[in-house]
């Protein structure tokens, strides 16, 4: 879906992948406060988000622990190799 702070996702715990106009994954992140709140925070840095073209959202169950959410974010980040993440959550070998 196109990048926008007005995305209607009801899950508060999500992992998201942001892609640029080239189709490459630029950023992998997660939130426990909901997509709208988190993307509004990202939009405070226009230079960071100017080339964000689309987003893929992976909703997790409401009862998902923050530790598990970060583990999922780390595994997805490891798999797709986003170009702009400064850091991803560490995952233990065998997790």
TrEMBL record:
InterPro entries: GIY-YIG_endonuc_sf. It comes from the Bacteria. This is GIY-YIG domain-containing protein.
